Amino acid sequence: MDCEPPFEEAYKTLLKNPYGDSEVDYSVEECELPLINLSRLSCGQGERDKCINEMVNAARNLGFFQVVSHGISKEILKNMIYEQKNLFHQPFQKKVKDGFLNLSTNSYRWGNLKATRLSQFSWSEAFHIAITDIPGIKDDTLSITHGDFCAITMGLHGVPRDLRPPHSDYHS
Which residues form the domain of 54? Predict the structure, then answer.
């Protein structure tokens, strides 16, 4: 498909010699993403601090976590998924162009072009859309959906603005 990044072309050397100079165990350890209930942010200060600490630790250690009781409607989530699918199904050559949808430079990323071993291989693509980019997005539906989503997440008890739990070693 023309929407897919050219992984095979970019990684053909790695795919021909997947083990590089030495054999390495490429097994992947499975783990469950932490599930964090954001309603705890409305509880007392102690519970709020625990919740924030859990988010900081999950982000630091895994890079990801799941949230429930976030206050985002099913309609907004459904619209977000729809818009994300549309975005990723755009032709690859269109996604890599500077100024695509009026987004900041380097908003679109794919793979790891610096990979020298198969263990560094990344079969992924991502859009990093800054909050400041949202008003300027050229696609009205995408802009509105992301705007709605951000308005709600920014209002989640101030947490996105200040994820520094008290008495932690976390530094922004």
Answer: 29-70
